[in-house]
Sequence to fold (58 residues):
Amino acid sequence: MVVALIVLVTIVVFILVDYALRVLLKRAREERTRREREEALDIGLKLDVSEEADTLKR
Fold:
């Protein structure tokens, strides 16, 4: 009886730890992706179209 209880508690603890790790890793991944996107938007694109046509030069 005691062995079955230990096995059951071990399985429940494993499931809880697995779920907690999945949630934490997902949040970290989303935060990293959001930060990378913000950095990409902050850099911006500097387009030089002056070579396309003479009338576009300033």
Q: What stands out?
A: Residues 50 and 56 are 5 Å apart (CA to CA).
